[in-house]
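thoughts on these tokens:
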Amino acid sequence: MLFSASTALPDVIPDNQTIPQFLLDTQHRLCPRRKDYPCLIEESSGRSVTFTELRERTFALANGLHQRFSFGDNDIALICSPNHVDYPAAIWAIHRLGGIFTGASPNSTREELVNQLRKSEASLIFVHPASLDLALAAAKTIQFPDDRIITLDAPTPTGFVSLSDLTTEGSSGCSMPFAERILSKGEGKSKVAVLCFSSGTTGPPKAVSITHYALIANVIQMTVHNISGASASTGSGYNPGDISLMILPLNHVAGLICNLHFPLFSGVTLVVQKYSLLSMMESIVRYAVSHLLLVPPQVVALTKASDRDPAVRKYDLRSVRHVLCGAAPLSPEMSSLLLDLFPEAQVGQIYGLTETATTISMLPAREARGPLGSVGQLLPGVRAKVVKDDGSLAAAGEPGELYVSSPSLALGYHNDDSATRDVFINEWVKTGDQVLISPEGELYVLDRIKEMIKVKAFQVAPAELEGCLLEHPDVLDCAVVGTPDAYSGEVPFAYVVLTADARQRLKEDASEFGRKVRSSIMAHVAARKSRYKQIRYVEFLDAIPKTPSGKILRRKLRSRLHRSFLLPNAKL
């Protein structure tokens, strides 16, 4: 059967506006009345940027880029930086000129950045000074000119132009102002705004072409979902005067759309910071933060630390009224711990893909709590079908692969027609996620189909086992992959990061403690899961490899598994 949202999407998506025109220049009927409120707050200094200042700074920077670099229509600029108070202005200045933005993680390797520069065909680089050496090394590899590298923050290294320099030049009025890119009717649906790289959890990252219309559509979809059924009794949704932390990286689609564009459209003030657990806690108290958008590793760190660390427990989190977790499925076990940590807040999950310009489902504003394990309900305008292994459509409550259709679909993969044909099928995106949709309309993501472990005739979801493992007192973090087995085909193999206390005990007695804790971990799962789901091997790691958005890089773990030996006493 086909599934769709209970709330209809009104015909209010402009198809002739660029993203900054939609966000900064016009008064959309679903947007709260514009006031000169603080849009952004720089966490480290407390400096605030008002709506008027943000708009003026975007225009000035666009003018500076035009004058200094002749940057214009369909030119591509890459930003390599942690979240920064001037990051949004840089994105929208690029869009004012008709250009395309692509974001790179500041934690990229030289090879990764080289790959992104080549795939995106960027002609300009914005870089935070802390990542300047990385950018220079990548630029040298592909003979990218140093004089087209712009630093995002002061102090500016000698010989480089800064974003502040360009903003000053652009606001001086000494030269002819730039001609802003104006879209014709319907052009927003084909005009690319963002090349957003997919997570690369199962293969090399691909550049997804997201249009102005797609991003705007998803903001409007979330807005309608947010206001539908909202009431004072739930204290719900995103509203003017709310304060949210902007800690998801803006180079990732979830940070870009869900943690920047959607909250700003709703009149929310964003506290911009580079994530660490303690700085997040301090910001919640300092700015009376009301909204949190987190990814599973942050939830794990927060719930584990709150349970064990007196330094974390001292923070008063009662200002938080709304918590969403996205980017990867959160197990029911972790969801329950999050509910316990924020007993008075709305708590739920949000789900989407880069290929759908993010959000497909999220916690409705009318619900104070989402059912454990649910990633919410479909947004207005989203249609879904669940396809079983035999190609037939699943009924409500039956598992299968999720296909979705939405106004926010991306165009496809940049310069990769073959991959586009595999995933973008007519008006549908083949997600690669195994899901079920309940009769009540709740969407449950079981796992990535490529990541499911096949034990005999049974499918085992790694996320289910990881949620169980995280309940063990010695486990700080974990990941589960399948390893070949002559009898069962595959069996679950667990990579585990131990807590600080457990690591210390391991140092004191590596052999005996290692044997005991492995046995304890496997027994913990055995007592809670069916026999075919039981962990057969355990290996300790210092850290689980993940994308910046928090998704586990299982391909790296599988590669490690193929070339490593099994530790003594690991097998049951």
